[in-house]
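Hi W., the zinc ion complex you wanted:
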Amino acid sequence: MCSSCFDIEYEKFIAYKDFDVFEIELNKRIESGDLILHKSDIENDGPFECLYRCITCNTVWRLSIPENAWRGYFLSEKNAVHFKKALKKEEKKGSVGCIIFLLILVFGIMYSIMR
Ligand SMILES: [Zn+2]
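Structure:
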């Protein structure tokens, strides 16, 4: 990271306004040639993910554009990998919680029927 690119990363854009402000800064850097679109061998996770590379320090940035409930992110390649792993773990935790809740519900219904 250097003065030509960004000194902050976003794990999510809390409001659309935050993204608008960020996008202006991003476009400035693209127009000045400090950041260029980057093609990566690592697969993109969706059509909303764009990669940029800083021509000064070679940092690769991953941008996921917020869309509806998805809050997006803007992270350096290295941090994006960690972030997405943590995100997947959270998703798994959520689905286990869901299954436990359903089991309790089913047992509750069976118990009330058998009484
Ligand atoms: Zn840079």
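Strands lie at 35-37, 49-54, 60-64, 73-76.

W.
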